[in-house]
Amino acid sequence: MTKPRVKICCISSIAEALIAVNYGASAIGLVGKMPSGPGVIDDQLIYEIAKMVPPPISTFLLTSETNVENIITHYKKVYTSTIQIVDELTDRQYQRLREELPAVKLVQVIHVLDDNSVKSAIEISAFVDAILVDSGNPNLSVKELGGTGRIHNWDLSKLIRETIKIPLFLAGGLNMNNVRQAIEYVQPFGIDLCSSVRTNGQLDEKKLEEFFRAID
């Protein structure tokens, strides 16, 4: 089993960021304003956390903005190394983002619902640096854009991974009990987790230790 990169999402403080890095996270997720879900922090705190994380560690801004101008405005408040777009980008204007923010990595979230999700992932993979498959549902009246703690259909995620030519991150309901099965089956470049390594909303070092031991 190839050991994947690990992204710890929903980081809420500098202390949590340091804990995640210390246990082996390759990336941390910093959640901006969202219609629902856990881990939202204000942009000033995102900026402060991103500024102090050592350079080998990627910092992901999770933005629910859907047009290029608002994404750029959001990014310029925080200056992370990566933008994780959790909703559908208006008119798929990825090239404009590239031109405005050439040094920033772009990761598009695909909420895996059906075969149309696979089609979208394959099409969008031509424009971004990585695809992150998750278990939200942007079609609900209050959009679910991540942090659901649910597993989705790994058959579809595996098909996406086999078809695209860029890295794939797997998210959605991963924990120490199912992560090895997920890695062996989907074979993602990276895995992304939030709730399974927390207790009462706080990053839990014991759960982190157990999780990283499960993937060693």
Can you give a write-up of this model?
- The structure is a single chain.
- The protein has 216 residues and is an alpha/beta fold.
- The protein has a single domain (5-215), classed as Aldolase class I (TIM Barrel).
- The protein contains eight helices and ten strands.
- It has helices spanning 14-23, 43-52, 68-75, 94-100, 115-124, 154-163, 179-186, 205-215, and strands at residues 5-8, 27-31, 58-63, 82-85, 105-111, 130-134, 168-171, 190-193, 198-199, 202-203.
- Helix 5 packs parallel to helix 6.
Provide a compact summary of the structure:
With about 220 residues, the protein is an alpha/beta fold. It has 8 helices and 10 strands. It has one domain (about 5-215): Alpha-Beta Barrel (TIM Barrel), CATH 3.20.20.70.
Approximate helicity band = 25-40%
Query: What would you give as the CATH superfamily?
Result: Aldolase class I
The largest beta-sheet arranges its strands as 1-2-3-4-5-6-7-8
Assembly state of the chains shown: single chain
Q: Identify the CATH architecture.
A: Alpha-Beta Barrel
Mean pLDDT: 93
Largest sheet: 8 strands, parallel, barrel
Q: Taking Cα atoms only, what radius of gyration do you get, to the nearest Å?
A: 16 Å
Which stretches of 5+ consecutive residues score pLDDT under 50?
none
